[in-house]
Design goal:
There is one protein chain. This protein is α+β, with helices and mostly antiparallel strands. The strands form 4 sheets. A 4-stranded antiparallel β-sheet has the order 4-3-6-7, with no helix packed on it. The chain has a two-stranded antiparallel ribbon with strand order 1-2. A two-stranded antiparallel ribbon has the order 5-8. The chain is globular. The two termini are about 30 Å apart.
Length: about 170
């Protein structure tokens, strides 16, 4: 039996890079930003910025190389690198296994990765529309982020009553 919430949205998959499959390690990976999601085909993703792995913070005067490895169950069409709020590099791939190495040709003096980029509601909705999606903010607690739901344009969204159950209380107090 499925609830209205689960039957009204498309399937999404979350990948988490955790040291062990325990509740503590899974939540540690989420809070450490070692996670990504897809609503499409399954993918394996490895991202490194110099010696730093996905989600790790690192700063420095010299710009390290960004390394991205993607494995898909279907051909990966392209891999894009975004800096701040704009794409700066695109590798057309059309292959099930893709490797990208990229160095910023115009690095800022003294950089920090990952930098936090704040998007306004209008800007976020514009990004979603370009991808054929629409969305809304979720009532999940997180100390440093606002979570959003994104669905294919025209897809049935969870009702406001269903969204009210998404409080993220399990994350409180961390």
């Amino acid at each position: 039996m499925t609830s209205g919430l689960h039957s009204s949205v498309n399937t999404a998959l979350v990948a988490i890079s955790a040291d062990a499959l325990t509740r503590e390690n899974v939540f540690d990976a989420i809070f450490s930003r070692r996670a990504y999601a897809t609503t499409g085909d399954r993918i394996l993703l490895e991202v490194r910025f110099g010696e730093a792995g996905m989600g790790e913070e690192v700063s420095g005067p010299a710009t390290p190389v960004l390394n991205v490895e993607v494995e898909g169950t279907a051909p990966v069409v392209a891999v894009e690198v975004w800096k701040d709020v704009a794409p700066v590099h695109k590798l057309e791939a059309n292959a099930e296994s893709v490797r990208l190495e990229w160095t910023d040709p115009n690095p800022p003096a003294g950089w920090h990765y990952p930098g936090c980029v704040g998007y306004g509601e209008e800007e976020l909705n514009s990004f979603l529309a370009e991808a054929g999606l629409e969305g809304c903010a979720l009532p999940w607690f997180h100390p440093g982020a606002t979570w959003h739901l994104a669905v294919r344009t025209g897809a049935t969204r969870p009702s406001p009553d269903d969204l009210a159950h998404l409080t993220g209380k399990v994350l409180d107090g961390r």
